[in-house]
Structures are given as structure tokens and as C-alpha cells.
Amino acid sequence: NFKRYATRLNLDANLSDWIKVGVNFTASRTANSGVSESLASSPIYEALTVSPASPVYAPDGTYQLVNFGPGSGFLAIPNPVAVLKTSTNLLTTNRVLGNFFGDFTIMKGLRAHISFGADIQNSLRNVFYTPQTLQGSNRNGYGSNGTSENLNLLNENTLIYTKKINEDNSFDLLAGVTFQNNRLQTSYQEAENFPNYTLGANSLSAANTLDITNSDLEKWGLNSYLARANYRFKDRYLFTLSVREDGSSRFGANNKYGFFPSGAFAWRVSDENFLKNSRTISDLKFRASYGITGNDGIGLYNSLSQYTIGKTVFNDIEVLTNQITRIENPDLKWEKTKQLDIGVDAGFFGNRLSFTADYYRKITSDLLLSVDLPATTGATSVIRNIGSVENKGFEFAVNSINIQQQADGLTWTTTGNISFNKNKVISLANGVDRYFSGLTIIQVGKPLGSFYGNVFDGIWQTQQEINAAGQLALPGSLPGAYRWKDINGDGVYNESSDRTVLGNGLPRFIFGLTNNFSCKGFDFSFFFQGVQGNKIYNTYRTYIDPQYNHLKSYYTNHWTAANPNNQVGSIRQWVLPAVSDFGLESGSFIRLKTVTLGYQLPKLPRAIKRVRIYVSVQNAFTLSKYTGYDPEVNGDFNSNTSYGVDNFNYPPARTYLAGLSISL
């Protein structure tokens, strides 16, 4: 259901000894027939919530519309087969990327580089639900289409001066200015009640009812001034200093610009006389850097007041209204990250074995986060710079040539990497020590993305045990009911006051391992990736299982007087808090991401340089204790505080590829 067509053109020419020009051009068209991944309309959610006894087809041969059967409750849950077979969700995108550049040699050692780039992207999304789906049945067909036209322009202008003073000393200087602006225009329409739905969303004008029409225009801009100096002494001691001043239209009137300096030093020890002739150490370099970077990823117009237009009736007349939804923040400014990095690069035995190690510490201050506001303001939230977060850890990478033979002999190389990171909230604004964000909490001293809720403490086994517990048991609890910990120790279980940090969606470390083999024209490679030490909030265990479809394991293992246990409660006593560790599972996994086998043809015509045929498998298998579809989840791509929430994400497909590569 995905088609892509692309073409590319790269040209450059020397117009004279001092002018070189070039152009890079790429055009593509993609058509993606996808599915919705929002919680309530995802086919994964629908398939999990609809009763397994509900038939796909009604007796008359049409698709069954109402969730029907034991355990269904006759809830209005769409038939996932009907949605997938008869609905349309097609996104078509045309994109053109172009860049023109010129290099001008002004004098010896001094040259100018000027480039102009454009990224033009036009998209159309058509969505249509026929009357055979629950979404379209009561509306006699429902459709929508949305268009977007995006134009991104970039201009970069730099001067570079290079000077070699003598055999031991050289330097280069760079100064520049860049301009970038983006314009996005969108339109959206919805319609229903189609006398004929053959053309679907391609003919909304044929509908009897036009529900929604709206349009939008967004603009943003970036302006940067930058400078850099590199100095080399004997090509062994390397110094770099750089500064940049970035201005973003996203910030308040008082803080459009941010200043970001950085510096770095490297010492190539292997070029020193005492190591130059070493048979063991072929390369050794120490490096250190410190710098400040900025982040403006907060969406548009968040520093300005925002109003919505509505309608109401006044004196029996319908009138338009304006209502504030966001208050202005003219002091909104860049989120800044100060980072220290210390590393070493080493090579051994003619670089048959190479190793890289880094230690880093990042302090991100003036965090750009949404803060809830009192109802008296008339608005719900505002974006503010409210605190700081620390990230620190180690990164290691190793490359080895395990076997290397001449000509068509066997060659085997290995590449591996592993990264450890520790995250912690250092401070929040205005003396506040915590903010709540959905299932998670932002709390001083704890990592971002920390799940916050109640702790499962087993199952109440007898009525005598419940009576003796007093207020530690929920009112109405019977044997088989769930028991929750009294976190604050006051002798009373309260869902709100007995919450604590349950775990974190950020991994302790991530890793990857690649092996490549080649012999007599054949090549074989495989890549493993993995994550360890993170938690996933499995929404199925707390949302679907207690309310809709119970897993077979639950029916088999649930608590009864004849089958007492401390893990799975009674069917009639399933009362869960809003957030608890009952829904948390280990997110650790190891995945064979890709496996590829190829063969390069040995004899070719003169006009052909290389021909390679190959087969490949992506997402071959995953080793994990996670009971959901896929442990590689992210709760909300629009949030920087919520990690590891499985909201019925569509699982990745195992993909088989066969290809032919020809080089002329």
C-alpha cells in the first residue's frame, strides 16, 4: 500500500579558475494508503475491543456494524475488517528539493560559498468511510480531504579563509549568515450523506451535507550569524572555537535571539615521536569539547495570545464569539543545552581494531514545557521556560576487521556500539517540585517520563483479611479483589495520596551490533539492535482487558475460591486505579533488524561497472518479555515528557525484499 517514484539530478561545472557552480535536484511522488493510529480509531484498538464472538458479516452478507456477542455490551465499536476493506485513507505527496550553489575564489586562501535551496511539498489526504462501516453508516457515507502546500526556502552565505603559516602552523576562519523561512497553507473539508459514494472523498461536492470547511496559514523564520576558527599545530594539536547567534520567530518579542558558543580541543597522540613507530597502537587521539546549543521546537505562535471563534445565540440571533485559549508570553526564549564531552579514539594493529569512547554531561535549562493555568485566566495552558534537566552517560563504539584476505578471499568485519544515559530533572520554575503530564510526572530528582501511580500489593484472599485491613481495603471489596500499597503509611488507602514513581520509559542503555561477510562475490550481513532497562505502560492490560475482551490467560488464571492466587483477581472484582504498576512491563528487547544476502556478478559488459542481486529481511525476529505487539513504542510523538506508552501502536511488519543494483 505504499508507492514511491523518485528522480535525482546532480550537476556541477567550473566556469573559470575562480568560479564553480552546481545544482542538486530531487523530485518524488509517494502514495501511502495507511490506517489511523489514534487511540479510538486505530484498527488495532478496534480488533482488540470488538467481541471475538461478533461476526464479520451480518446474515444478509453485509458487514456487521454493531459489536454483537458475549462480552460485547453492544458497544459502538467499528468492525475492523469493514474499516480496512471498505474505507479509504490515502496520503499523496509530491515533493521537489532543489539547491543551487556557487563557490568563488576571491584571492589566495579566501573563497565565498553561496547557496539557495527550496523544499516544495504538496500533499493531499483523502479519507472516506462507506455506509458499510460504523463511522459512515448513520451518515450515509462520510468523507474528508485535506490539502497542504509547504514552501521552505534556505539561503546560506559563508566566507572561508585558509592560511598555512609554516610547516607546523595553519588555521582557517569561517564567517557566515543564513536565512530560512517556511510557509505552510492548509485547507480541510468534511461532508456526509452521499447519494453515490463511488468517487468517495474525491467528490465531496456530491454530498448533501457539507459539515466543516476551514483553512490555515502558518509561517516561521530563522536567521543565524555564525563564525568559526580552527587552528592546527603540527597536525597534532587541534583547536576549534565557534559562535553563533540564532533568531527564531517562535519566541517572544523580548527574546527572539540566542547566543551559542562552543570550543573543542584534540590531541593526536599517535603522531608524537614516542608512539609514531609503535607496532601496536596505530592511532590514538584524545578530545574534549564544551558548547551550548539551542532548541526552538515548540510549535508556532506559542508566545502569542490565541483566540478561537465560536457561535452563540444572543437575543434569538446567532452571533460569532471570540474566546481566549492561550495567553501571551513575550518572555518565551530559547531552551539551551550546555554539553561537556570528553573522548578518546584508538586504533590497534594497523587499525584492524578501532575503539571510540565518550563521556558526556548535558544540562538543559529553560525547558520549553506546557504549564496548566487556573481557570480564572480563561485559558487552559501556556508554554514557559520552567526548569532544567541533566543527561549524562557513556558511549562506546568498536570496529574490527576479524578476517581480511586478498582478492576473493573471506572478509569478516564487526561494528558494535552501546550507549548509557542517566536522566534527571534538576529544577522546575517558581519553587514547584513537580508537574503532572498524563501517566507520567515531572519531578525534581527523577527522570523525565517517570510513571506515577499506585503499587499493586496482591489479592485479598478472605473476608476476614479484608475486615482486619479496615481502610486499607476499598469499600465493597470481596475476596479476589485487588490490594494496593499504603505508600504514605497513614493506614488508609487513597488512590490520590498513595501514588509513587513506578518506573521510567527511558532505557538504561541501547546497543547495536553489525557483522559483514564477503567471499568470492557473495556478501552477507546482519544487524542486531536492543534496548535494556526501560518500562512500557501496556494500555491493553489496564484498559481493554478489564473493560472489553479478557485474555484467555485471565480466564484460566483468575482468582476463585478453588484457585486462589496473588497475581490475577476475580472477574467481578477488577477495580484498577487510573495509573498503576499493574500495567507496567519490561520494555527490554533484542531485535534482528536486518539480514541481507547478496551476490555481485563477475563478468559484465564494458558499459556496466557493477551488478548486484540481493535478498533481505527486515524485522526478522524480536526477543522480549513484553506481552504487547511491539516493545519499540513511544507514547506521544508530540510530547517530550511521555515515553514508553503503548497506545495500540500499529506493529512493524516483517518485510522481505529482493533487489537488483546496477552501476554504469
Unreliable spans are: none
**Strand tally, please?**
32
Count of helical stretches: 6
Specify the structural class: mainly beta
Shape: globular
- The overall average pLDDT, rounded, is 89
How big is the Rg?
31 Å
Residues in helices, as a percent range: under 10%
Q: Beta-sheet strand percentage?
A: over 45%
Major sheet size, sense and barrel closure:
19 strands, antiparallel
Distance between the termini: 31 Å
Provide a compact summary of the structure:
The chain has helices at 43-49, 80-86, 134-137, 463-469, 539-547, 552-557; strands spanning 2-14, 19-33, 88-107, 110-129, 142-164, 169-192, 209-233, 237-248, 257-268, 281-295, 306-314, 317-326, 335-348, 353-365, 368-372, 381-385, 387-404, 411-428, 434-437, 440-443, 450-453, 456-459, 482-484, 500-504, 509-519, 522-532, 535-538, 584-586, 589-600, 610-624, 645-646, 655-663. It has 664 residues and is mainly β.
